[in-house]
Design brief:
Elements: E1 9-13, E2 25-29, E3 32-36, E4 49-53, E5 58-61, E6 73-77, E7 80-84, E8 97-101, E9 106-110, E10 121-125, E11 128-132, E12 145-149, E13 154-157, E14 169-173, E15 176-180, E16 183-184, E17 187-188, E18 192-196, E19 201-205, E20 216-219, E21 223-227, E22 230-231, E23 240-241, E24 245-249, E25 254-255, E26 272-276, E27 279-283, E28 296-300, E29 305-309, E30 322-325, E31 335-338, E32 341-344, E33 347-352
Parallel strand pairs: 1-33
Antiparallel strand pairs: 2-3, 3-4, 4-5, 6-7, 7-8, 8-9, 10-11, 11-12, 12-13, 14-15, 15-18, 16-17, 18-19, 20-21, 21-24, 22-23, 24-25, 26-27, 27-28, 28-29, 30-31, 32-33
Length: 357
């Protein structure tokens, strides 16, 4: 597949969010982007719920969430948006689950989680939500795996995940859910485990080669990438921003040996990342510089190296981002991330929304 040149990417500024925030969650449904909750300037969780229409380039406010919260897990079941757990106004994890019906424009309370939890990783398969891990009120990581049955409005416990953790990354491929990384207390874990939906069992995969916090995992057609992050300091080791890239070959079932020439150009953690048209895009974050990063780069799979993109107009970290399939935007089946890079007439447009700072 021919990949686009870095010259084909440019940044475009979109309509700003109605209010600035961090730890907001984004989800796409019906060609629109929904922004859910987050924390304001004072770190207080918000109940705001808004929708962005790409065609009109504008945000509209929707009925607020019944429960103000940040860092929620979110999933779509058809025309319904499920908001799961997160951190509430008292800065403690929640067990509350609420559902927004897009057609009715109303919120409904759903059956709660078995325990209060934040940092849950969710996947959706056949109108069921699979929820892995999380962190409870006692700040201990959970090893729960449960699925939500929408027809019965119940959470069903499944086999426990071998490694308890929160803030892991999960990918659904076929009937398997790949769960990588995450944290226990303040420290990163490099566990890699796979849940088989059909057999309802877990398999341990080879661990991520280097343990990093605030890194990004991305899944392409053939590989899973572990990118950048912060190596945490323990016993005489200073915390260190990393440019490491590790690549897992899904078919071969192992991590590949990666040359340093394939590492990121710039050390970074807590950045955004998306996969588009055969290119992995990363932007922003924190690094060795005293200021937040504005730089962006794209991985070229043929050259096995990263190439510089135009910098983000607004430097930042701790952003929310989402990749939108352009077919859901009633166009021609191409993809675009948000902040995104979409292709029209060979051009990539990197859009940003400064109110997500």
């Amino acid at each position: 597949m021919e990949v686009p040149s870095v010259k084909d990417f440019q940044w475009k500024t979109l309509a700003p969010l109605p209010s600035p925030r961090v730890y907001c969650s984004l989800v796409e449904a019906g060609g629109q982007v929904f922004a859910i909750g987050g924390c304001d300037d004072n770190g207080t969780p918000m109940d705001c719920f808004e929708v962005y229409s790409p065609e009109a380039n504008q945000w509209n406010s929707l009925p607020p969430m019944p429960t103000a919260r940040a860092g929620v897990a979110v999933a779509t079941l058809g025309k319904r948006i499920m908001v799961i757990g997160g951190v509430g106004a008292n800065q403690m994890p929640l067990k509350i689950v609420e559902m927004y019906n897009i057609e009715e424009g109303k919120w409904k309370k759903r059956n709660s989680l078995r325990e209060s939890s934040m940092g849950i990783s969710v996947s959706v398969k056949d109108y069921r939500i699979y929820a892995a891990g999380g962190m409870g009120v006692d700040l201990r990581p959970h090893n729960y795996m449960q699925h939500y049955d929408m027809l019965k409005d119940i959470w069903v416990s499944l086999a426990n995940m071998p490694t308890p953790r929160y803030a892991a990354t999960s990918f659904l491929r076929g009937t398997k859910i790949y769960v990588l990384g995450g944290r226990q207390s303040k420290y990163a874990v490099n566990a890699f485990e796979v849940f088989d939906i059909e057999t309802r069992s877990w398999t341990k995969f080879p661990s991520v080669p280097s343990k990093r916090a605030f890194s990004s995992f991305l899944c392409t057609e053939d590989n899973i990438f572990s990118i950048g992050g912060l190596r945490q300091g323990r016993l005489y080791r200073q915390p260190k921003f990393m440019k490491n890239v590790d690549v897992f070959d899904i078919e071969q079932g192992g991590w590949m040996k990666i040359e340093r020439s394939s590492f990121l150009k710039k050390r970074r953690a807590d950045f955004i990342a998306g996969y588009l048209k055969g290119r992995i895009i990363v932007a922003g974050g924190l690094g060795n510089q005293p200021n937040v990063l504005e730089s962006a780069e794209a991985f070229h799979p043929g050259k096995n190296k990263w190439e510089s993109l135009p910098p983000m107009p607004t430097p930042r970290c701790a952003c929310s981002n989402i990749v939108i399939p352009r077919k859901s935007l009633h166009t021609h089946g191409e993809e675009s991330p948000f902040p995104y890079h979409h292709h029209q007439k060979g051009k990539g447009i990197c859009t940003e929304n400064a109110a997500t700072m």
